[in-house]
Amino acid sequence: DAGVTQSPTHLIKTRGQHVTLRCSPISGHKSVSWYQQVLGQGPQFIFQYYEKEERGRGNFPDRFSARQFPNYSSELNVNALLLGDSALYLCASSFGQDNSPLHFGNGTRLTVT
Amino acid sequence: RKEVEQDPGPFNVPEGATVAFNCTYSNSASQSFFWYRQDCRKEPKLLMSVYSSGNEDGRFTAQLNRASQYISLLIRDSKLSDSATYLCVVNPLLSNYQLIWGAGTKLIIKP
User: Fold this and answer.
1) Which of A22, A52, A81, B56 is most buried by a 10 A CB count?
2) Which pLDDT tens digits describe chain B residue by residue (111 residues)?
3) pLDDT 10s digits, A60-71
4) What residues of B are in contact with residue A91 (Cβ under 8 Å)?
5) A31-40, A77-86, B6-15, B96-105: which has the minimum mean pLDDT?
6) Which of A44, A48, A104 sits opposite B97 (nearest CB)?
């Protein structure tokens, strides 16, 4: 069975641009969460979607948005990119809403120049 | 005070030794706890959940101390392949599924 898949794996953007990151959860998993991980820090929670509804939002500006599709895949959008948005963006899926356990994709490494 | 704190390390440990590290959390109402392992430039992977009664999985033992608000991870007979960053994860509230992650403790096992 395929695990959590994310695309693209690497991305280079310039300040002010926008970016869309994609995630496909493990088959049967209905919850998708997005995390931002800056080098040397733990993942920071951005969003959780369950059954296509936003169930949680971390402390990120409105430039960050996401959605979940009927097939449970998800997109993370970031507008007006800043240099500080450079990070590894991780998508995680779980069967239920309680995040037990989380299964992560390989991540998308975003570099903003 | 950070919600979840870990000693960043690195812990340099000879192969075969036993190593332990702790993670403290600030919210006394926290309900569930986990240890994840993250290899360099890879995604985190669940190592083990931490139960109130403590739990063991092979060479790994996790403990929860609610009174002092910390969880611990003990690795016995360490292997070179145990070298990684170990992330402590806390779910602060049942009604909020946002997980809080520590910054991780880096472990280096030396031959």
Assistant:
1) A81
2) 788 999 999 999 999 999 999 999 998 888 889 999 999 989 999 999 998 888 999 999 999 999 999 999 999 999 999 999 999 999 876 555 678 899 999 999 999
3) 999 999 999 999
4) none
5) B96-105
6) A48
Beta-bridge mates of residue B63? B72
**Can you tell me which residue has the tokens 């309900």?**
B31
Read off the DSSP letter of residue B96. Answer: B
Considering only CB atoms, A99 lies closest to which of B42, B91, B102, namely B91
B34: phi then psi, degrees, rounded to nearest 5: -145, 155
Whether B4 and A42 lie within 8 Å, measured CB to CB: yes
Task: List the one residue out of A5, A19, A6 whose CA is nearest residue A110.
Answer: A19
What b/e readout covers A68-103, taking b as 16+ CB neighbours within 10 angstroms?
A: beeebbbbbebeebeeebbbbbbbbbbeeeebeebb
Contacts of A44 in chain B (CB under 8 A): 101
d(CA A89, nearest CA chain B) in Å: 10
Question: B103–A40: do the CB atoms touch at under 8 Å?
Answer: yes
CB contact under 8 A, A99 and B99: yes
A96 band by pLDDT with thresholds 50, 70 and 90: confident
Q: Do B7 and A53 contact (CB within 8 A), yes or no?
A: no
